[in-house]
Design a protein that fits this description.
The chain is mainly β. It is built from five helices and 14 strands. It folds into two domains: 89 residues, Phage tail protein beta-alpha-beta fold; 110 residues, Acid Proteases (Cathepsin D, subunit A, domain 1). A hairpin with a 2-residue loop joins strand 9 and strand 10. GO terms for molecular function: aspartic-type endopeptidase activity.
Length: 235
């Protein structure tokens, strides 16, 4: 609690909004940005991942709603914000320092189709042959790359012999992969260039294709479960 301010116990979820402008807790000044974000997550009841991706920097002054504070605290970083409904944050994933390569307009709101607990969107993929292909992909913050079936290697213009072979750990076990780079990926009005892609045997994917972090980490992402949409913003 900040000296000189008071918030009723019943308004505890809104404690941060009760902070008086101009007052700044001494503890926050002494702590780093990572500690400040962890404290905000604990106070507001949402899960946070990726604190290790922050640079070593001091806490920042932030005011307003929890979402406003996060936008201020994470200036210069890309992140994924999952909301069960607007303003009800459930999960924050810090994906890294904002970098070039994402080109959406100021705000790209993209409707999704719910497939169980997942959000599905249409993505336009361009491979080395320059031929666009539209596919349905599941938004998956747990996937490090875009994930496609090996049957698409040739149709996208890749030479299978030049792709890098590897092994990936999935929920169903370790799988062999071939990795490359897609010249561009577009979802709604948002696009990114040089996006890492992993190809996995069709039978292991069971028809699913994934929009992973090699695309998502180019943006600040909000996943809205209530309205079935994702919002992509770029620095």
């Amino acid at each position: 609690m900040i000296a000189g301010t008071a918030c009723p116990q019943a308004a505890k979820p809104f404690l941060l909004a009760c902070m008086t402008v101009g007052l700044w807790p001494a503890a926050a000044e002494a702590a780093g940005l990572a500690d400040q974000l962890q404290g905000l997550a604990t106070e507001s009841g949402f899960a946070i991942e990726g604190l290790e991706r922050l640079s070593d920097e001091p806490a920042r002054r932030a005011e307003g709603s929890v979402k406003d504070r996060l936008q201020t605290l994470l200036q210069g970083y890309n992140y994924v914000l999952a909301e069960s409904r607007p303003g009800n944050i459930e999960r924050l994933v810090i994906t890294g320092i904002a970098r070039s390569g994402g080109r959406p307009p100021p705000s790209s709101t993209i409707p999704t189709l719910r497939v169980g607990a997942h959000h599905q969107v249409e993505a336009l993929l361009v491979g080395p042959n320059g031929v666009p292909q539209t596919v349905s992909v599941l938004v998956d913050t747990g996937a490090s790359t875009v994930v496609l079936p090996t049957s698409m290697i040739t149709s996208l213009g890749f030479d299978a012999a030049t792709l890098s072979a590897g092994v990936s750990q999935t929920a169903s076990g370790r799988v062999h992969t071939k990795t490359g780079v897609l010249p561009s990926v577009t979802v709604g009005p948002a696009s990114a260039e040089n996006v890492a892609v992993s190809f996995i045997a069709d039978k292991r994917l069971n028809g699913a294709m994934l929009l992973g972090m090699s695309f998502l980490n180019r943006f600040r992402v909000t996943i809205d479960d209530e309205h079935n949409e994702i919002v992509l913003l770029a620095k």
